[in-house]
Amino acid sequence: MRMQMALRQIDFTAAPRRTAPALQPQTMDETLALKRRDWLLDVQERQRALSPYASGLLTADNLSGEDFLHNFYAPGRPVLIRGAMAGWPALDRWTPDYLADAIGDAVIEYQGGRASAQDYELKKEKHRQRAPFRRFIDLARKGGNDAYLTANNSATNAPALAPLQADLGHMDAYLTRAPGMLWIGGAGTFTPLHFDLTNNLLAQVTGTKRVILIPPSQTHRLAHKSHVFSEVRDVTNEARLKLYPQARDVLRHEVLLTPGDALFIPIGWWHQVRSESFSTMLTYTGFHWANAGHEGYPAG
Ligand SMILES: O=C(O)CCC(=O)C(=O)O
How far is the CA of 12 from the centre of ligand 1 (A)? Predict the structure, then answer.
């Protein structure tokens, strides 16, 4: 993976960071400036497409921390890492039965009532519900998108789910020992198209998830309005594509996450995630390197 090239070090002083200016109504000049920016992003993507190594989604086995930093984390490029979770007891243990027995009837929080709403991610506070863990696992076994224990429930669930920590290992090459955030759901959970305000490592433990990743250069095709969400919601849904035809030809990578896979999603990369089976996953943001991109994000 490491490139055999001489690196000419050029002195580089980063510009001081400014807080984002408040958004103002657009003038004609600003519209033209945005068009020019989007033109350049398209030209750059066409240039990257000349090389599958530059434009494709790379998979790496047993990637060292140094190679991860230089080739993926710093450039903000996704990578599917295989082998980093080898030996984690959870990979063999975390079936619905095992989880239900380990946590029993301790009350946990999850996101509920999702099937009857489209904006369940944007309005996540409204969807917080509680149940004994065993009952939640029964809901997840049934499948569907209605009940999903997500990263958003992590802080509340930390004491109840603490016994599961003993089944997890560490990815010391990339991450500090800060705990991950757990996701548990059935076949059919769906997280609509959005990007995160931090770099993220998704660590799949049980089952499979299909992830669609879209580079930040495609933002102008994705009807980005509320917070970090795309109005398109699902780039595989024909009805949504009819409403947002500019999203039809969006550049995208599709990844099937299987147990033991870790997927690095850099800040700003759009993604949507669908579970294909009962699934457990952790997301980590405690990298060894700066990860505070969310500071200064223009809200709205
Ligand atoms: O696994 C999922 O359903 C969503 C994960 C995700 O989008 C994230 O961690 O940002």
Answer: 35
